[in-house]
Amino acid sequence: MQFDTLINNQKSKPLQILFAVVFSCLYILTEPTLNSMYFLYCTYRVQTMVIVANYAILAITYLLYFHKLYTAFREKARIDLGIIGPYSLVFAGYLIATLANPDTGNLARWSDTFFYSLIPLIISFLFLSDYYGKRFYISAVAWIYLVLSLLNIVFSFFPQLYIGEAKDWREEFFLGFENKAGWALIMGAFFSLIDWKLNGHRWKTVAYFISLLVNIKLIWCITALLGTFIVICYIVLPFVRKWFQKWDFLIFIGIILTLFLCFMFFQKYTVSSEPVALFIEEVLHKKRSMSGRLPLWKLGVAIVLQKPWLGVGAQLHPGFIHMADEYGVWSYYHAHNELLQTWYEGGVLTVVLSIIMLIYVADRLRNGAEEYKGICKLMLFVFLFMLLSDNMPYYPWYMVAFVSNISILISKKYNSEADNSRASVLAEQG
After folding, report:
1. pLDDT higher than 70, residue 153
2. Does the pTM exceed 0.70?
């Protein structure tokens, strides 16, 4: 996909504007952390139109994807698919677990989740496989998140301006429920940092982070708050930047896996201990149960111990379906932990495939461009850390896969003389 004329030819300004508007709408429709945007007007007709638009986008995206693959095959050209292959293997694990559990697994949910989750990855692949498209894509997405972040602040302070259905602005915001809004804001931080590094848009990044701090105060989502804290430490503390720049990503994967085992199997000495409980109550002003997460994790561990190898399969609802009453949790709650959700739905096989995916990302980043390594490892660690206490049940590993795909393709080194020449010319043009 060539973007040279579209992005750099000044005579095509109207076309550039139109393309940017269409791309913005497409991004909002296909990015799972922004799903709540679908129901801005919250009428049945609009919801139906959005669903139809999603299926149309799905069809067009896959046509472009297979056309790209066919063209590369015909021209015998090498093509970098980013994380799409390893991410598909994770879903293969889910498929095996679902087929092995006909009573609890649901193939319809698996297929909807798989094909829809790939759309943002494919779109980013189509853009980032071209040097000029890479700059446009990152800049455009950073703009989208800046605008959405500012709108979230406006509607929070002036809810009477909100056009759609009236919301309870204590827990639900323009960007969605507090957790979902938090994920979207952290995703915006990732794109803003990359935009600063790639395009030099410093003022846009500064503006975004000011709006991010205001939004975090409004939303007060603990996972987003901790994620923002890590990002701010990276920005202001040189030794933290050095850690993320120099340390292999496998070290960060090891830290996350260790924390997961401690949270799940040694709660008494970690998240349920008195110092942690006091911090949660007195500083974060949340319940000692971490807003009900501890009973959910105990239930998830109980399910895992019952069916460790192939889990219960992808379910129609992303909820716990066994022993919910016994543990005093609502049966449709999800695990609020990505690894635990993967284990109890997909079994050990899918967990192993997920870890292999992360190892693949670590290997690709190890061989990537130096200038992007720190930011990419930072944001991957932040999302993995956030997923220790939350997850998107309908889109397993989506956020990590999406950030991994951007990280791999954005830090890809240019190997051909033509690519290096084009990159040099564009750098000279500023």
Report:
1. yes
2. yes
